[in-house]
Amino acid sequence: MKKTISLLLSAVILCAVFLSGCGSSDSLTLNVYNWGEYISDGSEGSFDTIREFELWYKETYGQSVKVNYDTYASNEDMYNKISSGAVSYDVIIPSDYMIARMAQEDMLLPLDFANIPNYQYIDEGFRGLYYDAENLYSVPYTYGVVGIIYNANVVDEADARGWDLMWNDKYAGSILQFNNSRDAFATAQYKLDLDVNSTDTALWDKALAELKAQAPLVKSYVMDEVYNMMESGEAAVAPYYAGDYFTMLDAQAEDVDLRFYYPERTNYFVDAMCIPSCCQNKELAEIFINYMLSAEPAIANAEYVYYASPNALVYEDAEYIHSLGQEAMDILYPGIENFSELYNAYAFRNLGSETLGYVNSLWEDLKIG
């Protein structure tokens, strides 16, 4: 879809930029760190978000900007890289619980919303959530729910229910599991109806025992590798984020019939744009975030990554709704009317350092085993 970019108050931002000295003749650099497969990148004729931002910035401000765009596979990978101090990024897109952790550790900068007027389009249900209760550090980018993807040519429909499918020995050697501790433990915790945010080590031990029981059935622990393995039919069962199901559906092999369902208890999450404390150009980062909230890139990114958007310019757009179709809308936007209620019931919270250390030790135990 082609739409006109609607950036409100751009003149105000323009003045602010020039007053701050960003209007000099030197080219600017913006370093963005995002999940893999998480932005419309120009492939197959799609909107090239990074390139279009560079062109828009040049046209709007009369100055060149170069965006360096890197990707990570998990929140933990991103956190470890930034906390090491070895790299510097201007914009990152962590998940909710990681935002809470980074804010607590002074790893995020408060945002100047005067430079992000398009924040007005973010649905009220996505503001004031626990991870950023005062709306200081983050602007929601996407949200979603974890479900189970399976190949109906391999998996019996009668077995495709709940979390039990991932522990069904009929599919030993065809089951994938998350390769990050929080999501992997959650599959066991939701299966056992345990609190995913508990500080009780005994409950985490129960989840570990369940994951160890599953381990002989697991073909591989994966993150981005899940795409090729499910699309090709190399694996038949995987827990993953709803939006990624549609990406896989578009690329599945002829002999693969991918389908999706939500277990009764599962993770609701929000990924949001933030500015880390290592940022080298905060105002430019805020302008980039504002651009990402404007109509054309926001809709293009939602279409490309297939994740639900908290941005009214997206989910109220008639062409976007029509292009997805009702089935996809039902999967991607479950319970948007009462999102905060579902989110509060099932979202990950930031675990304290003691619990985090214990969980990491259990994860190492599982992976070594």
Briefly, what is this?
With 369 residues, the protein is α/β, with parallel strands linked by helices. The chain has helices spanning 10-20, 49-61, 75-83, 96-104, 181-191, 201-214, 226-232, 242-251, 282-293, 295-305, 312-315, 318-324, 326-332, 339-346, 353-368, and strands spanning 28-35, 65-72, 91-92, 139-151, 175-178, 218-222, 237-241, 258-261, 268-273.
Describe the protein in words:
It is a single chain. The chain has 369 residues and is an alpha/beta fold. The chain folds into two domains: 10-142 and 269-344, D-Maltodextrin-Binding Protein, domain 2 (3-Layer(aba) Sandwich), CATH 3.40.190; 144-268, Periplasmic binding protein-like II (D-Maltodextrin-Binding Protein, domain 2), CATH 3.40.190.10. It has 15 helices and nine strands. It has helices at residues 10-20, 49-61, 75-83, 96-104, 181-191, 201-214, 226-232, 242-251, 282-293, 295-305, 312-315, 318-324, 326-332, 339-346, 353-368, and strands at 28-35, 65-72, 91-92, 139-151, 175-178, 218-222, 237-241, 258-261, 268-273. Strands 4, 7, 8 and 9 form a four-stranded antiparallel sheet that branches. The protein is globular.
Task: Catalogue the unreliable spans.
Answer: 1-24
User: Which CATH C-level class of the largest domain is it?
Assistant: Alpha Beta
Helix content: 40-55%
Residue fraction in strands: 5-15%
Give a count of the beta strands, DSSP E runs of length 2 or more: 9
CATH superfamily of the largest domain: Periplasmic binding protein-like II
Sketch the topology as an H/E string, one letter per element.
HEHEHEHEEHHEHEHEEHHHHHHH
CATH architecture of the largest domain: 3-Layer(aba) Sandwich
Question: DSSP helix count?
Answer: 15
User: Do you know the CATH topology of the largest domain?
Assistant: D-Maltodextrin-Binding Protein, domain 2
Distance between the termini: 49 Å
Assign an overall shape.
globular
Protein structure class: alpha/beta
Overall pLDDT: 92
In the residues, how many domains can be counted?
2
Query: What is the makeup of the main sheet?
Result: 4 strands, antiparallel
| Radius of gyration (Å) | 21 Å
